[in-house]
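Regression test attached.
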Amino acid sequence: AQSVTQLDSQVPVFEEAPVELRCNYSSSVSVYLFWYVQYPNQGLQLLLKYLSGSTLVKGINGFEAEFNKSQTSFHLRKPSVHISDTAEYFCAVSDPSPGGYQKVTFGTGTKLQVIP
Amino acid sequence: NAGVTQTPKFQVLKTGQSMTLQCAQDMNHNSMYWYRQDPGMGLRLIYYSASEGTTDKGEVPNGYNVSRLNKREFSLRLESAAPSQTSVYFCASSEWFGDSKNIQYFGAGTRLSVL
């Protein structure tokens, strides 16, 4: 069974400072990894994904994440945050087996609060 | 391209009332999902439909029923609403293959209060 842990429920950071949101996963097989963002009163939307290949993945709005297989982590980073990045961020994992339906498991989310 | 459309956006029910939340997607996806989101608990899967004609229970199915009406539509029914079902409900869809494999596309949510 796969699971996702987001240890930080809230992360306050000053505007223009760097930020890292942590995500660790557990799975007995190789995985697909995702980060989603949820702005207030909206649904989730994909920020970036790791399927295979380069372990450094770039997403929208200047975010990037690095897949670390040995540490089973997929931390999200941004070198300089803006007020508009205030949102909740969800890490997710799924099984990359070919064909058919594969379950996606979400973490409990990290609220990023950017302070002016 | 509307993506995933949920109706209604807001609803207030009295305990014991029933209602159906509607969801439709226009991306021709095989799989559809219903989640509930509560503070501090992230997203919890209620039911999912891996493909047209199939439905399966998720983590928290009690008190809910679903219908996969066709490939586009997946509805969630509360037969007898309880205050514990006060939540924000999200519908999502995904595909099995290609570059979008396993990426879930979400609707804007239905905010439900049960008094």
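Expected vs. actual: identical. The two ends of chain B are 36 Å apart (CA to CA).
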